[in-house]
Design a protein that fits this description.
The structure is a homodimer.
Chain A: E1 12-13, H1 23-29, H2 39-55, E2 62-66, H3 70-81, E3 87-92, H4 95-106, E4 110-115, H5 124-134, E5 138-142, E6 144-145, E7 150-151, H6 155-163, E8 167-171, E9 190-192, E10 206-210, H7 212-220, H8 231-235, H9 250-256, H10 269-285, H11 287-308, E11 323-327, H12 334-345, E12 347-348, E13 360-364, H13 372-388, H14 397-410
Helix pairs in contact in A: 1-10, 2-10, 5-6, 11-13, 11-14, 12-13, 13-14
Family (chains A, B): Belongs to the class-V pyridoxal-phosphate-dependent aminotransferase family.
Cofactor (chains A, B): pyridoxal 5'-phosphate
GO molecular function (chains A, B): transaminase activity
C-alpha cells in the first residue's frame, strides 16, 4: 500500500473538462475550515449566490450550487420537478441528451425523445412543433453537448415553451462562462451548470438556478425532514407528492440557502471557497471579455488545425466555441495519438463516445485552459505526434497559422 | 455585490463537524488539476481505495467515496439496495436515525421505526428481538449519533443480522477514524462515513464500503446508461428494478471505480487529493494511536467540564469519545454563550436539535481539532463567557483539571 504523499505530474489540459484552474482559486481552496453556520461562512454563501446570478444572467432569487458533480445538479432539478408520469420532451443531439433521458426515466417521467444526427442540432421549429404535439410538462435539453461539440440555439424554443405553458430545463454545464447563456432572456426556467468546465473550478459542484414557476412546484412537494420538522410541519406534509430524493430535494436545499438556514447537508467548505473565487475572477474579467477570449483561442486553434491539413467534424455554424472536434485521419489509432501526447508532452486531449468513438478527437479551450500558450503547445505537440504516427502533414504550418491569428488581433 | 477575495477569519472549531483540517491536507487540495482518466489520477483512485479499506477495517473490494456530503453516501447505499416495498427496520436513538427513516421512506421502503430515549442507546437484544419479529430485508442504523453524543454497540446486532439473513447498513459518519469501527468483524454489510468529521478532510465526500451481499443486489438492478451502453447492454436492462437515481447508482459507480473506468460523473479532483492525504495521515498516525488520542482529549475535556461545576448530558457508558454534550445551566441562553465564544474568542461549539435544542451544548474533539491546545483554549474561553453570563463557576479549576489530566499521561 502506498503511503507517500501524492505528487501531481505537470499537465496541460485541453479536454472538455475537467480543465486547469487558476492558481488563485486553488489557493483559496487551501484556506482553513469554517463552520457551516459561522456568520462569515453564511455571508460567503450569500455572496456566492450574488455572483452566480450575475454569471448565469438571471434575476432569479434561487441560484446556488448542489454539492456534487454536474449530473448531481441535473438530477436535483429534474427529480424535484418531475412526478410519476409527467410528460417530458427531450430533443437530443449527443450523449448528454441520453443522460437527460436516463435521469428523467428514473424519475418516473413519460419521456418523449427526439434525436437528430450527431454533428448537427435542431431547427428550433422542429422542437416547437413536437412540443405542441406532445404537450409535455417539461422540455429538457442540453445547450452545448461536448460529445459532438455542437450548441443548440435556445431563444425561440424558450419563447415557445413560455407561450405554451411548458417548463424549459437546460443543461448548460459546458457553456456557462464560455459563451452567452441568457437564462432570463431566453425564458429558461431551470438551468444547471458545472464547475469543472468554463467556470474553471475543480469538479465537485453544480451551480443551478430556477425561477418562480419551478419554485411553485417544489413548494407544493415540500416536506420538511423528520428530526428537524415541527409537529405542525410533520402533519401538513404531502407525503404522496414528496420529492423522492432527500439529498436532491430543492425545497430543503433552498431553506438551507435562505436566512432560515434550516439544517440539511454540511456545505462543502473548500469547494465553496473555490467556487466563490472562480466566479469572482469571471466577473473581474467581465463576461463579454471572457466570451471574446474563448472565441479568439478557438479561432487560433481552428486555423492551426486547418493549416496542418486536418479537418473538423460537424456543422461549423453551430459549433461550441470551447470544444473543437477534429476528425481522426483515416487509418490512425486515435488513442495511440492521445497516449503519446500525454506521455511525451504532458498534454491531454479527449476522445468521444458512442458512434464518434475512434472517429474524432475533442480539444477543449475552456476557462483557465483557454490561453495562447496552451493552444500553441497543443498544435506543436500534435504535429510531432502525428508525424511519429506516419501522418502526412504540412509541417510547421499549424503553429504558424495560430501565431498569425494571434498577431492579427494584437496588432489591431 | 462583493468583488473582494474572501478571507477566512481565524477559528478554533470544536463542533461535531465540519472540523479543522491538517494543513498538509489543505496543501494537497491546492495541487493542480488532472484529467479523470489520466493514469496518474486513476492510480490515485486505486490507492485511495486501498487506504479506505484499511481505515474502514474491511477486506471488501468496494470502498470508494461518493462525490457529495455524508448524506449523499447514505442515500447512495440505501437507494441502490432498497426496492419499492422492501421492509427496513430502523432503530433510532437521535436525529440521524430520523434521517435514515426519511431517506428509506423516499426510496419506497416499508419502514419499521424503533426509538429509544435521547441520551440512551438500545440493549442489542431489543433490536434483535424486533428484527426477528419484523423480519426486515435491512436493518439500517447510526453508529454514533452526534445529536445526542451516544454510540450504539453493533457487534451483537451484526451477528444476529447475518444469522437471520438480514442486511446491516450503518451510518458511521461520525465515528470512523475516531474510535473502533470494525466493518468486517461486526458483520456490517454496507457502511457510510463522511470526510468532515474524524477523517478531518473538508466536507464534500462520503466514503462508503459494501460487501458481496450488497453487490449481488446492485448487479441484479444494474442498467448501464444510454449513451455509453452497447446495443446488447440496452436490450438486457432490467428497467423495472433499475435504481431510481442515476447519480447514486452504485452499479454504475463501481464500474467507474473499476479498471473498466466506465464514464459516469467527473470525479471531484481536489477533494480526492484531500481525501487521499487525509487517509494517508490517519494510517501514518496509526488507527490505535488515533483512537487513543481521541480518548485522551475527551478525558481532559470532561475533567475540565466537571471541575468547572458543569454537568454532562446522557448515559456516560455509551458516550461517543469525540462528542461531549454539556447541559446548559438553568436560566442560561445557550446561543448567547455560543455567540460570545465565537465572536470574542473565535471558538465554535455546537447546539443540538429537536428536544435537545437549548438544553445542551455539543463540543466536538474530532480529527485535527482533537488536540491539547484546542481543549485548553475552549475550557478557558468557556469559563470566561459563562462568567460574563452570570453563571457561578469554580473559576480556574476547569483548565487546571484538564492540564492535570494531560500531565498525568505525559509523566507515565
Amino acid at each position: 500500500m502506498s503511503l507517500s504523499p501524492y505528487n501531481v505530474p505537470a499537465r496541460t489540459i485541453m479536454t472538455p473538462g475537467p480543465v486547469e484552474v487558476d492558481p488563485r482559486v486553488l489557493r483559496a481552496m487551501s484556506s482553513s475550515i469554517l463552520g457551516q453556520f459561522d456568520p462569515s461562512f453564511t455571508s460567503l454563501m450569500n455572496d456566492t449566490m450574488d455572483l452566480l446570478r450575475e454569471v448565469l444572467q438571471t434575476k432569479n432569487h434561487w441560484a446556488y450550487p448542489i454539492d456534487g458533480t454536474s449530473r448531481a445538479g441535473i438530477e436535483a432539478v429534474l427529480c424535484s420537478v418531475i412526478e410519476e408520469g409527467d410528460r417530458v420532451l427531450i430533443p437530443s443531439f449527443g450523449r448528454f441528451g441520453y443522460l437527460l433521458m436516463e435521469i428523467c426515466e428514473r424519475c418516473g417521467a413519460d419521456v418523449h425523445f427526439l434525436s437528430c444526427e450527431w454533428g448537427e442540432v435542431f431547427d428550433p421549429e422542429e422542437i416547437i412543433k413536437e412540443m405542441k404535439r406532445v404537450r409535455p410538462k417539461i422540455v429538457a435539453m442540453v445547450h452545448g453537448d461536448t460529445s459532438t461539440g455542437r450548441m443548440q440555439p435556445l431563444k425561440d424554443v424558450g419563447y415557445a415553451c413560455r407561450e405554451n405553458d411548458c417548463l424549459l430545463i437546460v443543461d448548460a454545464v459546458a457553456t456557462v462562462a464560455g459563451t452567452e447563456v441568457k437564462t432570463d432572456e431566453w425564458n429558461i426556467d431551470g438551468l444547471i451548470t458545472g464547475t469543472q468546465k468554463c467556470l474553471s473550478v475543480p469538479s465537485g459542484m453544480a451551480p443551478i438556478t430556477y425561477n418562480e414557476r419551478i419554485e411553485e412546484i417544489i413548494l407544493e412537494r415540500k416536506a420538511v425532514e423528520r428530526g428537524i420538522a415541527t409537529e405542525e410541519q410533520l402533519l401538513s406534509r404531502n407525503v404522496d407528492r414528496r420529492i423522492r430524493s432527500n439529498y436532491f430535494d430543492l425545497s430543503q436545499l433552498q431553506d438551507y440557502w435562505s436566512p432560515a438556514r434550516l439544517n440539511h447537508h454540511t456545505e462543502a467548505t473548500s469547494m465553496l471557497y473555490g467556487l466563490y473565487e472562480g466566479l469572482r475572477l469571471i466577473i473581474e474579467e467581465g463576461l463579454e471579455e471572457r466570451y471574446k477570449r474563448h472565441r479568439l483561442h478557438e479561432r487560433a486553434l481552428i486555423s492551426g488545425i486547418h493549416a496542418m491539413g486536418l479537418s473538423l467534424f460537424g456543422n461549423s455554424s453551430v459549433k461550441m466555441p470551447m470544444v473543437t472536434c477534429v476528425s481522426i485521419p483515416e487509418g490512425i489509432d486515435g488513442d495511440s495519438v492521445r497516449g503519446m501526447l500525454l506521455q511525451e508532452f504532458g498534454i491531454e486531449i479527449a476522445s468521444s463516445f458512442g458512434p464518434l468513438q475512434g472517429k474524432i478527437w475533442r480539444i477543449g479551450t475552456m476557462g483557465y485552459s483557454c490561453q495562447k500558450r496552451n493552444v500553441l503547445l497543443t498544435l506543436a505537440s500534435l504535429e510531432a505526434v502525428l508525424l511519429r504516427h506516419g501522418v502526412k502533414l504540412k509541417t510547421g504550418d499549424g503553429v504558424q497559422a495560430a501565431m498569425d491569428t494571434y498577431q492579427s488581433v494584437e496588432q489591431r
